[in-house]
């Protein structure tokens, strides 16, 4: 069978003081008619990236609400992950699509994993392109099939999107971050189209409140001078996250403020063999291997948090930084503008030069940084915490009972 993932337990009641009683009551009311609903989530990996971070919180909260939710990870080898990484890049606009041999690998592993789904489910939620072909192979395994897209499909490679759309059109529902990601070919599909932005867990170790003293202590252990200004980007080592552009922006800032420091914090996913190669390229460009660190501490301590993506499905690190009330600068792409209102909750930029300019402004105007941070935190509280996402999923389930 597919690999089952243990997610532990969480209580919705623990979030009441953060999201408010009305939202918690709405969730409980929606859940009354969904008790015992059997829901299976299927993804490509249990570690690295936003999908796994979301599911480690969303699934326990679904269970707390009375849904019988489980998570299983598909099985694959390097040839499959090489093909799906190329597919991921192509769907986000890379001009190179898969070769015919790679499409064959992709379909073959979908067939293998389809046969491994056991049991009967009310809803099966397939996350991202890697397992998208499973539904048409075993449609009777669930009463309702949902495909959840987590990547930026605003300007996809034509060949890649033409291959994927026929697979996902067959789902009973598809879920997207923003309307701009929905391909034109989905209009005549069999199911409904839903716009459900992701969310962060404010009680996870990455996002829970950390004292300034603790954050400073951790950063100090990694060679950061906590008395000097710090710029920071947290993301997977992926060309779409543009760490090279961040380094270039930092060097421009450093010409004006020689005391400034930069921390690039990255993680690697088990389904991303390309990532290690790009990691080495990034480190060579930086001439400084920062190493592994505690993300929460660096985000909490940073004077400027950056996510200078050139493509971005959503960017959980954006909400993470805003939740910590840090001044934020992000690429004006994908799901980032959904979280950042330019000039109010942060700044949106399109080049290293713009990134450097906004960074200098924040570093030179501490009151501006505090104002951006406060406004950003409240924006995330209202729109991008996990209980809101749970409510949205329960609404979808109710419509497909």
Task: Summarize the structure in words.
Helix content is 43%, strand content 14%. The chain has 15 helices and 12 strands. Helix 8 crosses helix 13. About 4% of the residues have low confidence.
Q: Which key phrases capture this entry?
A:
401 residues, alpha/beta, 5-stranded parallel beta sheet, 15 helices, globular
Could you provide a short overview of the structure?
The chain has 401 residues and is of the alpha/beta class.
Q: What's the main sheet like?
A: 7 strands, mixed
Count of DSSP strands? 12
Provide the structure class. alpha/beta
Shape: globular
- End-to-end CA span: 27 Å
Number of helices: 15
What's the pLDDT, averaged over the residues?
91
Give the C-alpha Rg: 21 Å
Which range best describes the helical content: under 10%, 10-25%, 25-40%, 40-55%, 55-70% or over 70%? 40-55%
Order of helices and strands: EHHEHEHHEEHEEHEHEHHEHEHEHHH
Low-confidence stretches: 268-272, 282-293
- Strand proportion, as a percent range, falls in 5-15%
Quaternary organization: single chain
Q: How are the strands ordered across the major sheet?
A: 1-3-2-4-5-6-7
SSE topology:
Elements: E1 3-4, H1 16-19, H2 21-32, E2 38-43, H3 50-64, E3 68-73, H4 78-91, H5 100-114, E4 121-127, E5 142-148, H6 158-168, E6 173-176, E7 192-195, H7 212-221, E8 230-234, H8 243-256, E9 261-265, H9 273-286, H10 295-301, E10 304-307, H11 316-323, E11 328-331, H12 336-339, E12 347-349, H13 352-364, H14 366-383, H15 386-399
Parallel strand pairs: 2-3, 2-4, 4-5, 5-6, 6-7, 8-9, 8-10, 10-11, 11-12
Antiparallel strand pairs: 1-3
Helix pairs in contact: 2-15, 3-15, 4-5, 7-10, 8-13, 11-14, 13-14
